Amino acid sequence: MRAFLPRGHALKTHLGEAQIQRDIMMGVSKAGSIIFRNNVGVAIHDDPRTGRQRRVKYGLHPGSSDLIGWTPYEIRAKDVGGTVAVFTALEVKIPGKNATEGQQRFIDAVHNAGGIGTVVRSLREAVEAVTRFKIRGVRRWQ
């Protein structure tokens, strides 16, 4: 797999985990995958509105993988009857609110790669989005 190593990169035998993750992110990106670092934990932040401290959880959930994302895959005849996991990104907003520019770019990137990416404002909309994908298939679901 040296074809996907960054230019001038030499294989090292003793790399730290952070460097290995960076190398993997670069390499799989060149192989067509979209990968993000998923830090998971809890931080304490001062809430300027109340003056109190708040615990803020971040990342997917404890135990989730260090790197997450998707790999576009064209379904072929040999795949018929098989099952593939489809990356799903649901941006939840209250009625009247819209996704930020950055959130919309992420949603569009997921959708354009064949995943489920959309803004939802209710359970009904979320269920409709995933059901629509299952009925219509890749790239025809919206």
What report would you give on this structure?
- With 142 residues, this protein is α+β, with helices and mostly antiparallel strands.
- It has a domain at 72-142.
- The protein has three helices and six strands, in the order αβββββαβα.
- It has helices at 17-30, 101-112, 123-136, and strands spanning 34-37, 41-46, 53-58, 67-70, 88-92, 116-120.
- The strands form three sheets. It has a two-stranded antiparallel ribbon with strand order 1-4. Strands 2-3 form a two-stranded antiparallel sheet. The protein has a two-stranded parallel ribbon with strand order 5-6.
- A hairpin with a 6-residue loop joins strand 2 (41-46) and strand 3 (53-58).
- The chain is flat and about 60 Å long.
- Residues 1-6 have low confidence and may be disordered.
Question: Which helices and strands appear, and what pairs or packs with what?
Answer:
Layout: H1 17-30, E1 34-37, E2 41-46, E3 53-58, E4 67-70, E5 88-92, H2 101-112, E6 116-120, H3 123-136
Parallel strand pairs: 5-6
Antiparallel strand pairs: 1-4, 2-3
Describe this structure in a few short sentences:
The chain has 142 residues and is α+β, with helices and mostly antiparallel strands.
Portion in helices: 25-40%
The general outline is flat
Q: Catalogue the unreliable spans.
A: 1-6
Beta-strand portion reads 15-25%
Secondary-structure element pattern, one letter each: HEEEEEHEH
The secondary structure category is alpha+beta
